[in-house]
Amino acid sequence: MRPHVESIQDSDYVWHAAELVRGSGRASERRLSVDEEDGSSSLRIDFHTDWHRAAGIHHADTEYHVLEGEMTYGDRVIGPGAYLYAPRGVPTDAIRFREGSRILHYREFGDAGFDPVDSLSAPRWADAREDVIVLDTESMRWDAVPNPGPMPGLFVKYLHVDPVTHFYTRLVYAQEGWTDHRLAHHPCYEEAYTTQGKMSYSFGDLRPGAYFFRPARIKHGHFTALEGGTTWLFRSDGELFNWYTQNEWVRWGGEAVNYGPGGTRMTWSMSSHDIAGGRSWRSGKEIEMLERSVAYQRSVGADDIDYRQHGLGSDRSLIELAKAVDAARLQAGHDSNPHDRSHGDDHSHDQGHGHVHDHAAYGWPEPSSLEHPAERTDEYRYNWAAGRPWRTGDPIPAPVLSSLPVRSRSMGRWDGDGM
């Protein structure tokens, strides 16, 4: 399982000697994200000399995408935008990268192992499937994103789609002014590297070189594509469904033991509303863009509500918690006598009172009703953010919150509009 990496610049990563076994030449890599359980890796590689590797078989599903420079696969020479997909266990031709080339390199479900072969007619592994894909993405056409929901202005070039797992790699372009005012989470992981432009969203700004890796169900959004639009290379390990949230609120707190004023005990609480500091961190232009997104959703008959900028107006978390407390008191007959937490320990919270608090009474569902059918029994039960195949009609799992993502040195402290 890869950890959550949110909006970090690739320049904040240290360089390592590139792990390109059985190759000839010198290169360095920045490890954008790595799965130490199965070897999957997302890397930025720079070639300091011409680099070459003869024909062979990769131990992982492997992808190369040229940001700058030139790739030669067999006899085919392609410049920036070159893309190669080499399935695990399938013989691939010789590959070269010219000195000074910069690429994105991905390995999935395996390590950097590579076995030379004498020719492309060498036998495939018994469990190998799919074939090598070589593309000049610069010559490909942008197609409008076919999924219903987002407003017009989002375009895609599909590079690879696994017909069995639906794992896919694509280039995505959001034209200047494209906006989505909702937050989304998905049943699959999602990672992206920004190649051009600027976008603002709930975790900050995306500029060239910005990278994120989100495990399944991490909530994110409030996208606004700014000057010149924005382009990314996107990857997901399954079919992507969008489950939307609006006007989100989060509050957390606890009882301090030794870090109150003067070292005394204290109770503290903080919300994503507080983090915004009572101000709009978005420009007037961005607010206008977000309101246009609301208008578009309503124009197509989508169920929608007004966009409310986080940090301004009343704190929704306090309002919802107050409503929950009132509902619990009324349900329990405590409306004139707040629940006393100091009573004896001879009964649990719902024993001796003749009642059980019902989440639905104040609009919150029982959490288990939102789980994937196998969430507590399958091999991923230890990790809420593990992706699982989802089909229409399955329960839609609740998002995994990431309210204070760690930010990189060059991107600065996060002060976005919360989760």
UniProtKB/TrEMBL annotation:
InterPro entries: DUF4437 (IPR028013), RmlC-like_jellyroll (IPR014710), RmlC_Cupin_sf (IPR011051). Residues 332-372 are annotated as: Disordered. It holds the Pfam family DUF4437. Residues 336-360 have a biased composition (Basic and acidic residues). The lineage of its organism: Bacteria, Bacillati, Actinomycetota, Actinomycetes, Micromonosporales. This is DUF4437 domain-containing protein.
